[in-house]
Amino acid sequence: xxxxxxxxxxxxxxxxxxxxxxxxxxxxxxIYQSDSEYCxxxxxxxxxxxxxxxxxxxxxxxxxxxDIEHILLTSDKSADVEIIFICACDHCYVLSLIEIxxxxxxxxxxxxxxxxxHIIQDRLFRLAA
Amino acid sequence: xxxxxxxxxxxxxxIETLLNQQIKKEALSSSIYLSMASWCGRNGxxxxxxxxxxxxxxxxxxQLKFYKYVLDMGGMAISPEVTNIKLEYNxxxxxxxxxxxxxxxxxxxxxxxxxxxxxxxxxxTLEFLNWFFKEQREEEFKARRAVELFDVIGEExxxxxxxDKHVGQIVYTEG
Lengths: 129, 175
Prior knowledge:
Pfam families (chain B): Ferritin (PF00210)
Organism (chain B): Pedobacter gandavensis
Shape of chain A: elongated
CATH architecture of chain B: Up-down Bundle
Oligomer: heterodimer
Helix content of chain B: over 70%
Domain Ferritin-like diiron (chain B): 9-154
Largest interface: A-B, 16 and 11 residues
CATH topology of chain B: Ferritin
Protein name (chain B): Ferritin
InterPro entries (chain B): Ferritin, Ferritin-like, Ferritin-like_diiron, Ferritin-like_SF, Ferritin_DPS_dom, Ferritin_prok
Strand content of chain A: 25-35%
């Protein structure tokens, strides 16, 4: 009975795998898209976090809003970390300045790729005669 | 790979941000007009107070129109926080001069959104904005004519009483 249950679980696990497609990756992390779940998985700072459409945009906004130059030039004694907390999202990042730069690079690349994908979809399927 | 960004929303995140800024601007306008209505009311300019009450309602309606559009297109409409509304004005004329400035700033801001729409080829939002451009023609006309009343009638003697009487009668007819 126990074995059957495990087999059943294995079967169902195999029957509905989540397909990821890599959107963009750098040496520091990657962003994958899941078409079936309509979401993205951000592999960064040692964790894989799931972001839906709205939260990915919030993450982008939060990261882009950080004034990296200001943090670099400031000479006060505050800690060199930023907390990226997104409202209504399960994840939170506590990142050093180097990591913020890396995450920004990752997001910028991913959004360029998503834009490129949009153009390709337009050209191949939506505008094709 | 699915184009999820486009599937989820018709408008880009940049346009969404601009439209949310506009929502805030319209809300601010509405509050400013309400404050102007209060000033006019407590200084004895009843017709002008009515005029500004009406303007406040119109701006609120514009705000909701933008708000609904953002939502309907799959965006996130943000209910704005409105603070720092001026309570006192130095003169009757200053109220109308500031009302005109407010309308000009709204027109300019909508023009700015349209410029961005052109850049992104977002003709859907551009078409939506057309209604507002037409509306702004009327709004600016009315605000400008109201300021001009101060020169045409003059503020001496019963001038301000006359101006207050005529403010509500300004009508824009498309020629």
